[in-house]
Amino acid sequence: MATVSGGSQTFNVTVLQVSGTNSTGLGSSFNVGSLSPVTDTALATPGVKLTVDVQAENTKGVANSLTVAVTDPSGSNGFFGEGTITWEDGDSGVAWIEFTGFPLQGDQVTETGECGLSLQTSTEDVGVRVFTL
């Protein structure tokens, strides 16, 4: 079974292992690998606090890890979150990681409406689906 761990450099964001998403959308799906990292922007649903849910599936059953980071696109470095999903050799399956609790923007009034998102594995490609609220 895969495990999820939060990065030691995480601040102003909560990183959790979850079992699914509350998003009603289809999410964005793509493959992520060690030689094919992915960067993107995650957008909140208007009027809803930003939450980013990442579903990852290791179909090959090889030892692997997926590191996911969320960053502040404003340049003010108001938050940073990092989490890693780790699969042991022989473990093929789905795991979820959630980023929530984003701080208010610099004006201390406006909710954070987006974040930078980067994903990379340690070895083989994994299938990923990203959901936002």
How would you describe this protein?
The chain is an all-beta fold and 133 residues long. The protein is globular, with a radius of gyration of 14 Å. Helices cover 0% and strands 50% of the residues. It starts with a strand and ends with a strand. It contains no helices and ten strands. The chain has a single domain (3-132), classed as Jelly Rolls. The chain has strands spanning 3-6, 14-18, 28-32, 38-43, 52-58, 64-71, 80-87, 93-100, 114-121, 126-132. The strands form two sheets. Strands 1-7-6-9-4 form a five-stranded antiparallel sheet, with no helix packed on it.
Any descriptors?
five-stranded antiparallel beta sheet, 10 strands, 133 residues, 50% strand, Jelly Rolls, mainly beta
Structural topology:
Elements: E1 3-6, E2 14-18, E3 28-32, E4 38-43, E5 52-58, E6 64-71, E7 80-87, E8 93-100, E9 114-121, E10 126-132
Antiparallel strand pairs: 1-7, 2-8, 3-10, 4-9, 5-8, 5-10, 6-7, 6-9
User: What is the correct CATH architecture?
Assistant: Sandwich
- Number of E strands: 10
Briefly note the structural class of the backbone.
mainly beta
H-E string: EEEEEEEEEE
Instruction: Kindly report the CATH topology.
Output: Jelly Rolls
Domain module count: 1
The number of helical elements comes to 0
As a percent range, the share of helical residues equals under 10%
Strand content: over 45%
Order the strands across the largest sheet as they lie in space: 1-7-6-9-4
Report low-confidence residues grouped into runs of 5 or more. Answer: none
Q: Assembly type of the shown chains?
A: single chain
- Give the C-alpha Rg: 14 Å
Shape estimate: globular
Main sheet, how many strands, which sense, barrel?
5 strands, antiparallel
From the N-terminal CA to the C-terminal CA, the straight-line distance is: 27 Å
* Whole-number mean pLDDT: 94
The CATH class name reads Mainly Beta
